[in-house]
Amino acid sequence: MECTALTGISHDVIKDLRLGRARTLELHSTHNVITLKGVEPGTPIFLTSTNMEDLGIGDQGIVADVVGITITMKRLIEYSPGVVYEERERMSARVKVKFCCNSSVKTVTQDSMFSPVFVEVVKCCSYHAG
User: Fold this and answer.
1) In 7-83, which ranges are E strands?
2) What is the pLDDT of residues 78-113, one digit of tens each?
3) Which of 4, 53, 67, 80 to pair with 95, CA 20 to 30 A apart?
4) Residue 128 resides in a domain
5) CA-CA distance, 45 to 35, in Å (whole number)?
């Protein structure tokens, strides 16, 4: 299955998602916001704690279904009386996801630093003798 990848996600968030809880994540990393740009609700997405630069074949993560997504621009204003007045903007994304399955990376594709990260993933199965 090919899907976009969100990287650098906390181990605790992935653990909570594996328990079946839908979670809303707020992402500020530029590469993750770019990755979410073309994603629609209902789309499967790969989440991993591995950094984008280190993502490769065999890395573990989960596939989750996107429930909802919002990308916004936030304006930050810092002011010190008589000294500094600074205005900055920061783009962020909020995405609500629900666990689908554990998975492993088969291939990684990224055209440039300013394009989404795509991965081909394989569903991981584990069997327990009982």
Assistant:
1) 23-27, 44-47, 60-80
2) 777 777 667 778 889 999 999 999 999 999 988 887
3) 53
4) no
5) 10
Q: How far apart are CA 28 and CA 25, in angstroms?
A: 10
Residues 14/52/115/89 CA torsion (nearest 10 deg): 80
Q: Please count the other Cβ atoms lying within 10 Å of the Cβ belonging to residue 9.
A: 23
Query: Does the residue 17 lie in any domain?
Result: yes
Give every residue of the chain whose pLDDT is below 70, as ranges. 84-85, 125-130
Nearest CA among 124, 126, 120, 125 for reference residue 44: 120
User: What are the backbone dihedrals phi and psi of residue 55, each rounded to the nearest 5 degrees, phi first?
Assistant: -65, 130
Burial of 100 (0-12, 13-18, 19+ CB in 10 A): middle
The total of structural domains in the chain comes to: 1
